[in-house]
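User: structure tokens for this one?
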Amino acid sequence: MKVFGERLLELRKERNISQANLAKLLGVSSGIVCLWETDRSEPTALNIVKIAEFFNVTTDFLLGRRDD
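Assistant:
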């Protein structure tokens, strides 16, 4: 899910949010965001939905199925 990690990193940096702050807002451990961004772990479907809602993007965008 390489596209996911890249897009998550891009969205997080665009909004100037640290990995720790994003993790806190999503209710996950601080290290998991790093693992997602570096493609060493994949988020659950529920976490993908939470991230999409937080950043106001679609899950298809996060997963690389759409570019908008």
